[in-house]
Design goal:
four-stranded antiparallel beta sheet; globular
Length: 185
Amino acid sequence: SFAGIHTQSPSAGANACGSEGGMDNRFDFTLVSPGVLFGNRGVLYLPNTCRAFGNDGVSYNQALNCNNTTSVPPNVCTALRNASDHLPVVLDLAVGNLASSSTAEPATPPAKIFNNPATDQLRVALNGTGLRWSIVGLQGQTIAHGNSQENTLMTIPITDLPPGTYFLLVQNPKGPTFSAAFVKI
């Protein structure tokens, strides 16, 4: 179930440039600051765009299959497979004059998770009006969603979720989208 986010190793043969063994381990990632997450410094992370560049999501425990991939052009896939130890992790950013200026104070995040890791319930404070929230799995599937008309402290039942990592996304019609990872144990 994690094949789409593995970053090591795109090679499997003895002629591998780095480690060999196939795409079966390592989850490299990119960290962003609150300024980039909320876009209050002229750079904004675009939600759900972080990805393992070149991973086709189907080459578990084997070299990248560059014959049938749609994730990157075949020649790029072949170059990644033959000349790298890890796949690069990339994300999309909006750059320029966003809703706030570079001298503005950081925006108040529209949400805060109180219990992370969580077991049966996720406790979240929502800050704002007209917020839409959703819980999203690592493969991008929406698991639960809802709306909040005003500031509220809410409890989202997560008893039926299998243990793992999930994202809480909160869309704010008057500002940036908030996203935070949480762990269900």
